[in-house]
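Sat 14:20. Reprocessing the chain from the morning session after the first attempt stalled halfway. Input below, unchanged.
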Amino acid sequence: MSISLSTAAADRVRNFLVARGHGIGLRLAVKKTGCSGYAYVVNYAEEVAAGDVVFEVSGVKVVVDAESLPFVDGTEVDFVKQGLNEAFKFRNPRAKAECGCGESFSL
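Finished this time. Tokens:
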């Protein structure tokens, strides 16, 4: 099982945690929704709960709950800027299809 962060994503998380003043890393999960079936949920990780799996990537902790892990295993999280827009992008090798906006996927 693995989750990876690009250099840009790791830098973004690190910088936001410092500016925020608290939190232990990035929390990655999925929820059933969207036009393709599942959507990524990204938030700050405040703690590690029972059943969470923690990956240490480029000095950043990525926390994934056990239920979401099979859906995101092998995913690379990137952070991209395009003009005025900036967002996390996901390269999930398990995804069979993604919606046009890239916010949801199916397995």
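The beta strands are 4-5, 25-33, 37-45, 53-57, 60-64, 76-82, 85-91, 97-98, 104-106.
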